[in-house]
Amino acid sequence: MPTRTPAVALILLAAGIAGGAACSRAEQREPGEKRADGGAPQAPAPQGKVLEAAENESPAASATPRAGAAAAGPARIEIPAGKLVAGSTPGDKGRDPTLEPALLDVELGGFTVDRHLYPNDPAQAPLTGVTRARASELCQQAGGRLCTELEWERACKGPEGTPYAGGAAWDPACAKAPASCASGFGVVGMGAALREWTASDIAPIENLQPKAAAVRGATASASAVDHRCARRAAVDPAVSGDDIGFRCCHGAPNAASIPSPQWQQTFRRAEIGPQQVAELLASVPQLRDLGGQISFFKEPDDANAVLNRGRTRLAPSGAPASQPAASPPPNTTLTTSPLLWNPVPGEEVLVVTGKADDDAFIVAFLKLPGDRYRIASSLLLKDDPGPLALGFNGYVRRRLAWATCWDCRGESGNITYRDDNRVVITQK
Prior knowledge:
Blueprint: H1 25-28, E1 38-42, E2 76-79, E3 82-86, E4 104-108, E5 111-114, H2 132-141, E6 145-146, H3 149-157, H4 173-176, E7 195-202, E8 212-217, E9 232-235, E10 244-245, E11 248-250, E12 267-270, H5 274-282, E13 294-295, H6 301-311, E14 332-335, E15 339-341, E16 349-356, E17 359-368, E18 372-381, E19 389-393, E20 399-403, E21 412-417, E22 423-427
Parallel strand pairs: 1-12, 7-10
Antiparallel strand pairs: 2-5, 3-4, 5-11, 6-11, 7-8, 8-9, 12-15, 13-16, 14-19, 15-16, 16-17, 17-18, 19-20, 20-21, 21-22
């Protein structure tokens, strides 16, 4: 029976978490889903070192609150023209790929932003409980306008593009004293204790996300990752919550916006060779000692061998089973080829199976812009040379199966994209 090594990526592997792969289409099909048969091959060309999983990265140094409190009275901050890297890196903690773009380069013109939330007076509490339309009216009366969400994000990330206003990590003290925390540009209270209306809309995603107002920032009680400058929330512009304030910008608004990702083909075959995979594995500290020359299993012979092992399992009496013990579910394709997987809009995962000497493996990588990759999850089958096959169904968006013996306990399992946007490989 294959054994597993400790997780080297996002999730600690634990047997039995995910269910079997033989669920019906009615149970698993999701809104907006498109049928996929593994066609339309893609040819990844990996560039550079694989990024470490967020859970395995060294903790960032604690952010230091900036002395950004201003004297009583209005104050405005000039934000120079420049490039904003909007969004976040796939695999970042708290990232929602349907809302946050993957490191989107945007050129913005210069603008002016109020240092504080409206009414931009440190002696007064920020105004909340108004709709976005009312917030826009109040900014116009003050001689300004609502900031666009990309202007808000640039003002928050500062000239150095930090993940949080003022630093690389969230400082809980900012929730208690927002006026004591400023971004690198000197804008106060961004993402600290209130959410903020912006003038931007979140574009719809078919059967998943209706058009909505883009809200930035977080409440004081929100989790640390929710205070990131890149975090977006889709909110009905007609609501008027006590946890939503706003701030005004001045000057011509920037027209740049964030496009919403759309549903893509669920599974596509990836034309990537063993040598390219070996280079990816060599840049992952926990996998570089896998040992031996990396090779793929044969297609379709080894996929058929995995299926036949399940079909010829012995009955408890020791006699061959009278009926096939296993067969792939309807609409399921078995393959030993690498796959590109689109579990949700905005996320793409490269899934590879292979072997090195007598060890078989499955590795999932998150795809980043520029054909960069980040480790997502892995499973090593020590002293088991395989073959190992993947089973995918275009109607099952968030899961595919793996097996060395199809549907055999201890020799099969699932690769699941969880609701928390993590990839986990489990063994039955």
